[in-house]
Amino acid sequence: MTIPAPWRDIGNATRLAQGYAGRRGKEGDSSGGPKPERAGKSAWPTLVIEAGFSQTLAQLRIGMRQWFSTSNHEVKIVLLAKLDGTTSLLEKWEEEIPVRPGATTTRHSLQHQEPVLRQTITITRDTTTDPISYHVTSGALVLSFRLLFLRDPGPREGDLAFSIQELEEYAEDVWA
Fold it and tell me: What are the residues facing 33 on neighbouring strands?
């Protein structure tokens, strides 16, 4: 998949909590954000990926909520990948502040924003077939351009979609 606009791969760099002296930061498994908006060394990503094999899904969800709050709501999408021997569960969580014409966003409204589960995809590994096959439920994974790049898409730009085939290739790489 080609990212259609300037993008900075932040990787697994640690980010410190904003506005809270001495508060711990977060370190995701992978992350990124738009350039130049999130190009600074201490800039927060707009996308974070958290993967877990030994962690429970509940623990991954706690980490997801921490990403949104610790970043002071600068992180916009958190992808969770819960892995086990035959299944990969992907959850796409978003936190978007509703925008009303003329309204202002306050610290209080940001602190009380709840993340929303926008998409769940299950990928199963079938080891009874030769070669091993992978099955994806619920279609492509779609990431909002506006949340990733902090602007509306321009001509020939749009949401990023990872097809079923791309998700199957991802699964094959994970279990390789």
Answer: 8
Q: Please report the sign of the dihedral spanned by the C-alpha atoms of residue 10, residue 148, residue 38, residue 14.
A: negative
Q: Can you tell me the distance from the alpha carbon of 58 to that of 120, in angstroms, rounded to the nearest whole number?
A: 15
Distances (CA, A) of 43 to 34, 91, 93, 122: 10, 24, 20, 32
N-to-C CA span, the chain: 20
Q: What is the CA radius of gyration of the chain?
A: 17
What is the Cα–Cα distance from 25 to 16, expressed in whole angstroms?
A: 4
Q: Give dist(CA 107, CA 138) in Å, integer.
A: 36
Kindly list the domain boundaries of the chain, sorted by start residue: 7-15+27-175
User: Average per-residue pLDDT in the chain?
Assistant: 83
Contacts for 115 with CB less than 8 Å, ≥ 6 apart:
64, 65, 68, 78, 93, 94, 95
pLDDT at 21: 47
Q: Would the pLDDT of 160 be above 70?
A: yes
CA angle 113, 117, 119 (to 5 degrees): 150
